[in-house]
Amino acid sequence: MRLRSLLFVPGDRPERMEKALGLGADALILDLEDAVAPAAKPAARQAVAAFLASDRRGVEIFVRINPLDGGLAEPDLAAVLPGRPDGIVLPKAEGAPSIAALDALLAEGGAAGLPILPIATETPLAMFRLGDYPALGARLTGLTWGAEDLPAAIGAVSSRDADGMLTAPYQLARSLTLFAAAAAGVPPIETVFPAIRDLDGLAAYAARAARDGFTGMMAIHPAQIAPINAAFTPSETAIAQARAVIAAFAASPGAGALMLDGRMIDAPHLKQARALVARLD
Questions:
Q1: What are phi and psi of 23, to 5 degrees?
Q2: 157: left (phi > 0), else alpha (psi -120 to 50), else beta?
Q3: pLDDT of residue 140
Q4: Can you tell me the distance from the alpha carbon of 183 to that of 67, in angstroms, rounded to the nearest whole number?
Q5: Mean pLDDT for the stretch of residues 180-206
Q6: What is the CA radius of gyration of the chain?
């Protein structure tokens, strides 16, 4: 299933989880971390476990657990793994050691091999561990990043300028996540757009992400789902162009470069075309 939009839903709000199933997101991320106050976490675990036991066909369900080093990840997993979520979102992931530690906990919980979606840039050390992920692609369902925890961790005032554009350090984090995902052979997932009322800004941000190579994006409000889905759904024109490129090379299998509609196409164009068409499956 293509993951264009992944909607965060607070784990302590069962009514929102149920409603979210019909909002058009490709996946839900049931959040046991930032969206849930410490005192509410036990009840949130119970609510998520109950929801996972219900009928949820057609939408993939991930659970964002708490960070591995805080003593909360273990009870999170104990509560949710019996419900067989489609994957675990790992916050504050720090490369191979974090994936290995989570894998051990998953195995203990009878869920060895469950897909993992790391949030790969939320600590300073995490930035230096991005090179680990290409060797871990078989364990990942994607790779995403965050622009909120990292500035707090280093004492920055913000990750964005007044116009909402990322400042240079966080542009770097975004770019390295994109390249790490590509090297790992997994979908790169764009981070959230925090201005929930600025749907025009969201649409522009999502369009830039799709242009740059991201294949999906996380959402924090239901109103963000439709613009995100639109941005990451190839247009009919783009699909037709991709199929024309594939057909041209199929008709001339020995060619290294061809002319199509007045422009030269070669192996990179064929690779891009095949990748776009594969996203339609």
A1: -95, -5
A2: alpha
A3: 98
A4: 25
A5: 96
A6: 20
